[in-house]
């Protein structure tokens, strides 16, 4: 039906899973950048005059 066969599905499903996992990993990394050098994540505050670890 619609030219889809079992071999096609066995090749597309892993690629789709990889794509979803990659997307979720990127979103989690993006979310965690909000907490860099903040006491909520690392348990310390920056000293006066100390630069954050990201540019």
Explain what you see.
The chain has 55 residues and is mainly α. Helices cover 56% and strands 0% of the residues.
Quick gist of this model?
This protein is mostly helical. It is built from 2 helices and no strands. Keywords: Electron transport, Membrane, Mitochondrion, Mitochondrion inner membrane, Respiratory chain, Transmembrane, Transmembrane helix, Transport.
Q: Distance N terminus to C terminus?
A: 54 Å
What do the pLDDT scores average to? 79
Largest sheet: none
Category from helices, strands and their pairing:
mainly alpha
Helix count equals 2
Output the helix-strand order: HH
Assembly state (oligomeric): single chain
Secondary structure: number of strands: 0
Question: Could you list the spans in which at least 5 consecutive residues all have pLDDT below 50?
Answer: none
| Shape category | rod-shaped
Strand content: under 5%
Based on CA atoms alone, the radius of gyration comes out at 21 Å
> In percent, how helical is the residue content?
55-70%
Spell out the key features of this protein.
respiratory chain; rod-shaped; 2 helices; 55 residues; mainly alpha
Helix-strand blueprint:
Blueprint: H1 6-32, H2 39-42
């Amino acid at each position: 039906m619609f030219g889809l066969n079992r071999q096609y599905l066995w090749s597309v499903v892993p690629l789709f899973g990889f794509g979803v996992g990659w997307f979720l990993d990127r979103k989690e990394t993006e979310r965690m950048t909000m907490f860099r050098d903040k006491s909520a994540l690392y348990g310390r505050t920056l000293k006066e005059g100390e630069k954050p670890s990201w540019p």
